[in-house]
Amino acid sequence: MIALLTRDMMLAVRAGGGFGLGLAFFLIVTVLVPFGVGPESGVLREIAPGILWIGALLACLLSLDRIFALDYEDGSLDLLATAPVPLEGVVAMKAIAHWVTTGLPLVLAAPVLGVLLNLEAGAFGWLVLSLAAGTPALSMIGTFGAALTVGLKRGGLLLSLLVLPLYVPTLIFGALVVTRGAAGMAATPSLLMLGGITCACLALLPFAAAAAIRINLR
Amino acid sequence: MSIWEYANPKKFMQTSGVVLPFLVVLTVLALGAGLVWGFFFTPEDYKQGSTVKIIYIHVPAAMMAINAWAMMLVASLIWLIRRHHVSALAARAAAPVGIVFTLIALVTGAFWGQPMWGTWWEWDPRLTSFLVLFLFYLGYIALWEAIENPDAAADLTSVLCMVGSVFAILSRYAVNFWNQGLHQGATLSMDAEENIANVFYVPLLISIAGFILLFLTLVLLRTRTEIRVRRIQALQARERMG
Fold first, then answer.
1. Number of domains in chain B
2. Do A148 and B156 touch (CB under 8 A)?
3. A154, CA 20 to 30 Å: which among A32, A119, B37, B211?
């Protein structure tokens, strides 16, 4: 399992793995928003939490189809499915590897982009906390979506259509934490809900994703 | 005599072929009675005027939009557990009907909201969760269309339906935290002290019955079509082999 985790992380970081692509996308989305809505710092300050969360969500989405596609093409997914480790564990490791290579950089980069969007000073801590608590759920839900569409030739667009509605609760609570934190209100309840969603996703979705992979490999 | 007999496509086709004409007649009667009574023979609301009559389409469509998803969930579970093909095809047949009901509820809601709330759309929890439900239907139908192997498609959409149900309910309660509601609470509930006034209540119930019958008719019809499509595919495959 650990070997699988390190293998996936190595593959993602090495050339052609698309590491950093999500991060660059996050940066570009955040930079484009002021061009769209105008440079007034008051407006930007108000919409910053939502923009940062949506940017992180889209950046996560970008690299989802890579989770299983390459392994499916070269046959290593069949080997993983017949290996003595449970497929559920393999799926969970894949999701964690995706989070470490995509979600974690987003969490670390978000405060810098928060400065660009003139985020309220008190909200930076909440931003990092909420992204750290929420992005694992994004990775896990995305892994489930990738498992559903792994056998398809052009699954990318379908993957977005399937996954984005599933992101709604995570997005709501994630953005709520930052908004409430920026307004000086109690953000802990929303953060707890967000953490609950993440824990439930990590606990249950590997089973659904593994079932989907078994169907696709049949 | 057990319900599982209808898992046999032949038995299902026979029985549904007999039932369907009666169902069509009943649907037309109930829908016609409910809507005509509702539109022409009920008084106008003292505050809402004639716009109150949208209720005879809006409420039943919204109810059936949710119930259609619930029916798809049950059918998917039956398919996953007992591997009855008719069940999987019924889930597939119900999805487009459900999405149309969702759309009807959203559109009639917009027509109703414009004069009453002064806006076509409001990011109210109920409206928003219906929009999310619409997206779930879209994803479900798109997944059915995308996969060529019919058994794999049935399996994967069933898994999606189960996971989607959990997330749909989660979204429904998540949006409550996110915005305050403009939409009124439940109009019809068993335990409420005060429901909608009786003059509106009876035609509304008939109209709901009509929508339920309409849903049953359409799903039966579409399931029969799916079974026939499956048979044609089997015949064509046999032709190629022989």
1. 1
2. yes
3. A32
Q: Does A166 touch chain B (CB under 8 A)?
A: yes
Across A10-22, average pLDDT:
71
Taking the domains of chain A in order of start, what are their residue ranges?
A: 2-216
DSSP state, residue A101: I
Backbone angles phi, psi at B45, to 5 degrees: -70, 145
Residues of B in contact with A190 (CB under 8 A): 177
DSSP string, B195-240: -S-HHHHHHHHHHHHHHHHHHHHHHHHHHHHHHHHHHHHHHHHHHH
Rounded Cα–Cα distance for residues B33 and A66 (Å): 55
Residue linked to tokens 């997005």: A171
Question: Is B83 among the domain residues?
Answer: yes
Least Cα distance to A7 among A110, A105, A70, A94 occurs for A94
Asked if the structure places residue B135 within a domain, the reply is yes
Q: What CATH number does residue B102 fall under?
A: 1.20.120
Structure confidence by residue, pLDDT tens digits, B125-149? 888 889 999 999 999 999 999 988 8
Residues B156-172: tens digit of each pLDDT? 999 999 999 999 998 88
The closest CB to that of A148, out of B160, B170, B174, belongs to B160
Residue B7 lies in a domain: no
Of B209, B228, B226, the C-alpha closest to B23 is B209
Q: How many CB atoms lie within 10 A of CB B196?
A: 14
Of the candidates B86, B138, B137, B80, the one whose C-alpha atom is nearest the C-alpha of residue A215 is: B80
CB atoms within 10 A of CB A39: 9
| Full-model pTM | 0.89
Question: Is the CB of A148 less than 8 angstroms away from the CB of B138?
Answer: no
A159 shares contact with chain B (CB less than 8 Å): no
Q: What is the pLDDT of residue B100?
A: 96
| Domain extent at residue B102 | 18-44+58-186+197-241
Question: Residue with structure tokens 């996110």?
Answer: B178
Residue B190 has what pLDDT? 53
CB of A192 less than 8 A from some CB of B: no
Report ipTM for this prediction: 0.87
Helix, strand or coil for residue B45? strand
| Residues in chain A, overall count | 218
| Domain membership flag for residue B6 | no
Distance in angstroms (rounded) separating the CA atoms of residues A159 and B156: 13
Q: How many CB pairs below 8 Å do chains A and B form together?
A: 71
Instruction: Report the SS3 class of residue B83.
Output: coil
Among B residues 29-68, those touching chain A with beta carbons less than 8 Å apart:
none
A197 touches chain B (CB under 8 A): yes
Decide if A190 contacts B177 (C-beta within 8 A).
yes
